[in-house]
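2024-03-11 09:14:02 INFO worker-7 job=invfold-0412 stage=load source=structure_tokens
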């Protein structure tokens, strides 16, 4: 009797339980698999996303180098505007097929506060400055 858990089940349970969107595409950049959190981010279902062209659907530049980070704005299916940070790399599956793997983090709140952070750091907004020392209060 073999009580070991198949490797694929371990991977799927780890990837589907994190707050990072994960997308796996074939070498032509067609979406093959996404984790539940990615579906939640875009207010979509796995069925809606599978077989779509990732670069067209998300507006990612198809000429990005293999291992790269990027940020971009996308609209979810319920019309919310999201800023996503994306890390992508190229790999191979167990059958030696080329795959594009992308990880997405929602940075919408960070981007919304960007102008305020720039104003504070430039000294244009003193609402977060210490009145005595002039240092930035975190």
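2024-03-11 09:14:09 INFO worker-7 stage=emit residues=138
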């Amino acid at each position: 009797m073999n009580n070991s858990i198949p490797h694929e089940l371990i991977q799927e349970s780890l990837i589907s339980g994190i707050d990072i969107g994960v997308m796996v595409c074939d070498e032509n950049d067609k979406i093959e698999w996404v984790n539940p959190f990615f579906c939640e981010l875009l207010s979509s279902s796995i069925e809606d996303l599978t077989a779509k062209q990732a670069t067209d659907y998300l507006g990612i530049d198809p000429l990005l180098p293999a291992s790269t980070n990027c940020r971009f704005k996308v609209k979810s299916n319920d019309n919310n505007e999201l800023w996503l940070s994306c890390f992508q790399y190229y790999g191979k599956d167990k059958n030696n097929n080329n795959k594009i793997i992308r990880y997405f983090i929602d940075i919408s709140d960070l981007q919304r506060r960007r102008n305020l952070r720039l104003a504070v750091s430039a000294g244009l907004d003193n609402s977060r400055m210490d009145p005595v020392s002039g240092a930035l209060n975190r």
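2024-03-11 09:14:09 INFO worker-7 stage=report msg="Residues 17 and 37 are 8 Å apart (CA to CA)."
2024-03-11 09:14:10 INFO worker-7 job finished
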